[in-house]
Design a protein that fits this description.
about 625 residues; alpha/beta; ABC transporter transmembrane region fold; Rossmann fold; 2 domains; 6-stranded mixed sheet; 4-stranded antiparallel sheet
């Protein structure tokens, strides 16, 4: 974590300088106060009861009086300088802290943007938010404490022990006795408190996750009238959080008295020894003041170790959690000197591709196909078959565990991610819009495009009409996630957002599922111009959309079981003809009455160990070249 000091190293140097000056000034002030008291002893011959005694003392010119006046003036100057130094110390401290927070936040946000989907799949949004806020502050506070407060404690203790040493070596040696006792007890306490601090942060993570989910799913909660259920769930977690916090407080409550008792015992012992030395005439009153001031300062600083220890325990847990974010290996690593995607028409090739979110449980099994550039490919299949996973691999949201994927002859793993993803545009099944204007959302992928290009994309996506009807047209601000729009309107804006990027490969993941059939037909007509000359993958369930494609791929259980045009697949027994018959004829066709379901058919294929329909096998010509 201390690498975050690097960007603010000069601020750290300045802050440390003012800490050192402040510690020196504080020690000198204690010494000067003692010298002033010793000066009082030296001018005891002045008769305080004499008329005008104070003025006689003020005007006196004897050496003792002059020395005392000089000591008072120096003490006043030191106190005034201490106030000035303290101002610069606090200013430098705050400047260092805020700049360090900026750099840590920047590093975390940068990492969250660049890390792959696999990382976000493993951690909830609530956990990531809490790490980016609470854990960051814990680490920041500890780094600041470790650099400045620890330096302050070390210098104050060192300077004051030297000050005591100049007065009496035995008293200075006695003042060092509590240090090893404190060190042992603090180390012993640290081992006990760390797991408790971790459990508190884990409970806080769950609180943030529950809040984030409740806010995101407020419509579902209202629809099912489960407000009481959600309140009870949050209350139960808050109770667990409170219990863990109280346990941590009790442990620190037991810790503080022990530390204070050691300090008090040490303080009283030193004053006892100092009293004996004064009785024997081996120590002056001013020396006792110096001893009291120095020991009070030392013990006051050392008692801060308890606070530092609490920050340290929290920071150790937070640092480990931040480390998981900052040092998370990229799920899709980019090679050093990765190439840019060369010119081409958008040919996509899968060669024996195998993938699973858990490598032990593949979702995609040995998929092979070649799609010519400029083709329109429809992907159909039952829910959970792996259709979305298949197209996500094209954008390299994940890397396959086996085989390779090529676009225009270049392996995706050899390409720079930015170069690839500017040429692959997606319209997701779940649309996400930002809290921005309509035009800002459409131009998200190309923020510097003209208003004319934005409007053209909106017209092609059949969004222009409802945008113009909005209060400020394209300048209308949208609520979070586009909550003020209908599902179909949000989806059309997402399609327009994909259009303006002018991609080489366009992927529509059930993009028209939220619109009615009439709007879908309008969008499909407009998209003909958009899809012209670029490779388009359409995940769809409506045969009216699928039958317009140049090629249809049927995905079942992570395998391509059928491939061909609509007419070719209608002539084959299989999943495609079943769903086509159900949609086009309102039920299963007569000739399919005795045909088994696609699940039973797949089970039969597994038992017989017959190879699935694949590119280039014997039988009907289902190769991409033939189909197109």
């Amino acid at each position: 974590m201390f690498r975050f000091v690097q960007p603010v190293k000069w601020l750290v140097v300045v802050a440390c300088w003012w800490v050192a000056v402040s510690a020196a000034m504080e020690t000198l002030s204690i010494r000067q106060a003692g010298e002033a008291v010793n000066g009082i002893q030296r001018i005891q011959h002045v008769e305080k009861s004499a008329p005008g005694g104070f003025w006689r003392w003020l005007e006196a010119t004897d050496p003792a009086t002059n020395q005392f006046r000089h000591a008072l003036i120096v003490l006043g100057v030191l106190v005034g300088l201490m106030l000035v130094v303290r101002y610069f110390k606090e200013t430098a401290n705050t400047s260092m802290s805020m700049n360090m927070v900026f750099h840590i936040r920047q590093a975390i946000y940068d990492k969250l943007q660049r890390v792959g989907f696999g990382f976000h799949d493993a951690l909830s949004s609530g956990q990531l938010i809490n790490r980016a806020l609470s854990d960051l502050q814990n680490v920041r506070a500890f780094i600041q404490t470790a650099v400045l407060v620890t330096l302050d404690i070390a210098l104050i203790v060192a300077f004051n022990i030297v000050l005591i040493w100049t007065r009496n070596k035995w008293v200075a040696a006695l003042s060092l006795v509590p240090l090893p006792i404190w060190t042992y007890y603090i180390l012993r306490f640290s081992r006990k408190i760390r797991p408790v601090a971790r459990s508190v942060m884990e409970a806080d993570d769950r609180n943030i996750s529950i809040i984030a989910e409740a806010i995101s799913g407020v419509h579902v909660i209202k629809a099912f009238a489960t407000e009481k259920q959600e309140i009870d769930k949050y209350q139960a977690n808050c109770d667990a959080f409170r219990d863990r916090v109280l346990r941590r407080i009790r442990m620190f409550a037991d810790f503080q008295p022990v530390i204070r008792s050691i300090a008090m015992a040490s303080h009283l012992s030193l004053f006892l020894v100092a009293g004996i030395l004064m009785i024997r005439g081996k120590m002056l009153c001013g020396d006792l003041v110096i001893l009291g001031g120095a020991m009070g300062t030392i013990l006051g600083r050392l008692q801060q170790v308890a606070t530092i220890n609490e920050q340290y325990q929290n920071a150790m847990v937070s640092a480990r959690r931040l480390y998981e974010v900052l040092m998370a290996p990229p799920t899709v690593p980019e090679k050093t000197g990765a190439a840019l995607l060369g010119a081409g028409c958008g040919e996509v090739v899968f060669e024996k591709v195998r993938f699973g979110y858990d490598p032990e449980k593949p979702v995609i099994h040995d998929v092979d196909f070649r799609i010519k550039g400029g083709s329109v490919v429809a992907i159909v299949g039952p829910t959970g078959a792996g259709k979305t996973t298949l197209v996500n691999l094209i954008a390299r949201f994940y890397d396959p565990q086996g085989g390779r994927i090529l676009i225009d002859g270049m392996d995706l793993r050899d390409l720079a991610l930015a170069s690839l993803r500017t040429q692959v545009a997606l319209v997701f099944q779940e649309t996400y819009l930002f809290s921005d204007t309509v035009s800002g959302n459409i131009a998200y992928g190309r923020p510097r495009i003209s208003e004319g290009e934005i409007e053209a994309a909106a017209r092609l996506a059949q969004a222009h009409e409802f945008i113009e009807a909005m209060p400020r047209g394209y300048a209308t601000m949208l609520g979070e996630r586009g909550s003020s729009l209908s599902g179909g309107q949000r989806q059309r804006l997402a399609i327009a957002r994909a259009i303006v990027t002018n991609p080489r490969v366009l992927i529509l993941d059930d993009a028209t599922a939220s619109v009615d059939t009439e709007t879908e037909d309008l969008i499909r007509r407009g998209m003909r111009f958009v899809m012209h000359g670029r490779t388009t993958f359409i995940i769809a369930h409506r045969i009216s959309t699928v039958k317009q494609a140049d090629l249809v791929m049927v995905v079942e259980r992570g395998r391509i079981t059928q491939m061909g045009t609509h007419e070719q697949l209608m002539e084959q027994d299989g999943h495609y003809r079943q769903i086509a018959a159900a949609q086009l004829q309102g039920g299963r066709a007569d000739e399919d009455q005795d045909a088994p379901s696609h699940l039973k058919r797949l089970a039969a294929q597994s038992v017989s160990a017959q190879p699935l329909v694949a590119l280039g096998e014997a039988g009907p010509d289902l190769s991409t070249e033939g189909a197109l």
